[in-house]
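Workshop exercise sheet. Pairs work together: one partner reads the sequence aloud, the other fills in the structure field after running the prediction. Swap roles for the next sheet.
Pair: D.N. / O.F.
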Amino acid sequence: MLINVLAFAVAYALTQGIKGSNLFRTVFFMPNLIGGIVLGYIWSMIFDGILSWYNTSILLESKYGFWGLIILMCWQQIGYMMIIYIAGLQNVPGEMLEAARIDGATRMQTLFKVTIPNVMPSITICMFLSLTNGFKLFDQNLALTGGQPFIIQPGGATVKTTEMLALNIFNTFNASGASSQGVAQAKAVVFFVLVAGLGLAQLGYTRKREVQQ
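Structure field:
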């Protein structure tokens, strides 16, 4: 949700005729061209450089790892979603915007009553992509935190506090033990069903709110 809100805000700002909008579009899109592993290591160094002033690290506290992943994913995906939103905003019928201005609608009223309903197809696509990408998060998670920090629970079980689903399946498959691969395959099936189910539910929910042209 945060990615979509920020991406829409950037797209909306860049379609208001500001100077240098093409340059800003390029700048915002460029992080999407960098691989997830590289991004993870880059942001790991950035976060550790900042947190070293407070005598801690992104691998020492769960909250830093959690927010680090959010910042990394936002920084990488906002530019891609922005392009989709810009395409949607440019297809909003000009006569509808003009009619809203003639009727005395404010900028906010025009945004929520005219612009956003007409951009719902783009919102549907972007929400689907951000939802599925969030579940499929792997290489950024592996490079940034690797699931750390670890917590030892009573009984000796180790919990990786920033380990996402895809990384958990990978680690389970490569764990020692004859049954680990079978467990990982079962998790992968459940993972597929979960992502497909949530993705289809989200598509059905948002498509009902699309304006029929």
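Discussion prompt: Residues 62-90 form the longest helix (29 residues). What would you look at next?
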